[in-house]
Design brief:
- There is one protein chain.
- By secondary structure, the protein is mainly alpha-helical.
- It has one domain (3-291): Farnesyl Diphosphate Synthase (Orthogonal Bundle), CATH 1.10.600.
- It contains twelve helices and no strands.
- The longest helix has 32 residues, at 206-237.
- The radius of gyration is 19 Å and the shape is globular.
- The model has no long low-confidence stretch (mean pLDDT 92).
Length: 293
């Protein structure tokens, strides 16, 4: 792989991409269970979700540099613009290009879900930009976690199911809860690591506002609630296969302990990647449980 390709691959932040794949996988599995699975619609949903995630990461790279949140004092993985590997202008153009590709892929879903899906698509893209850009950046005002929970949890799972089934069910929304919470935990770990540079830049994440102890509780409670949802659904439906996600609970518990004991940035960088893996594993197990029901 060329050096340029490696730079752009790093800027896409592969460790965060499970947040885009997981809700589509679960939404598609639910559609399969209900006999309405459509591979074409599910594939377009996956393309849209991945492109929005990558576009948001590019926007984050650009706007965090503009706001001064990414500097030489950064303790996490290097950011392309802050490290001088990509100029701000080029990153901004790349951001718009990826978001345009996301919009075009989303247009293909109109054939399944109707023109009102444009509203959801545009809202997702605008929030991806507003996450760190615009006059009132969500991440700089403590709303990043809520954004991730809503758009990479509730909206992504429900929309994936809707374009295949033509309706949104209670189960589609319920299944979006654990996916959104575990996706938000990726952000918790990231912001936990960056608390000092974020505070200096005026980026008021929840970790900056309430401190590391509160972040550890948020991380633990989010994991606990996420794993409780399959239990509730399994009890309601008398379907033990929906308990399969609990095979991943030891990993989640270890992550909570690692966050509490972490002292070095390298430990949190490793935990960030492992948190994405936990989300992916949870989504796979939940999807198997839905299909195998």
């Amino acid at each position: 792989m060329s050096a340029s390709a490696q730079v752009w691959l790093s800027a896409a932040r592969p460790r965060t991409l499970p947040a885009a794949v997981a809700p589509v996988l679960v939404g598609a599995a639910l559609a399969w269970r209900d006999g309405v699975f459509d591979a074409g619609a599910a594939s377009l949903c996956l393309a849209f979700a991945l492109l929005v995630q990558i576009g948001t990461n590019f926007a984050n790279d650009y706007y965090d540099y503009i706001h001064g949140a990414d500097t030489v004092a950064r303790v996490g993985p290097r950011r392309a613009v802050a490290a001088g590997l990509v100029s701000p202008a080029v990153m901004k153009r790349a951001m718009w290009f990826v978001f345009a590709a996301a919009f075009l892929s989303g247009l293909g879903l109109i054939a399944w879900g109707g023109p009102w899906l444009i509203v959801i698509g545009v809202a997702s893209i605008l929030c991806g930009i507003a996450y760190t850009g615009g006059p009132w950046p969500l991440a700089y005002n403590g709303l990043g976690d809520l954004f991730v929970f809503i758009f990479f949890g509730l909206v992504a799972v429900a929309a994936t199911y809707f374009v295949q089934a033509g309706r949104v069910t209670v189960d589609a929304l319920l299944l979006g809860v654990p996916i959104g919470l575990l996706a938000a935990n990726i952000l918790v770990v990231n912001n936990y690591r960056d608390i000092d540079t974020d505070r200096a830049a005026g980026k008021k994440t929840l970790v900056v506002r309430f401190g590391r102890a509160a972040a550890r509780w948020q991380h633990f409670v989010s994991a606990l609630v996420a794993f409780a949802v399959p239990v509730a659904l399994a009890a309601r439906d008398q379907s033990p296969t929906l308990l399969l996600p609990w095979l991943a609970w030891p990993m989640a518990w270890i992550h909570c302990r690692r966050l509490r004991r972490a002292e070095q940035p390298a430990e949190l960088i490793a935990l960030l990647g492992d948190t994405g893996k936990l989300l992916a594993l949870f989504a796979v197990l939940l999807s198997v449980g839905l299909i195998w029901k």
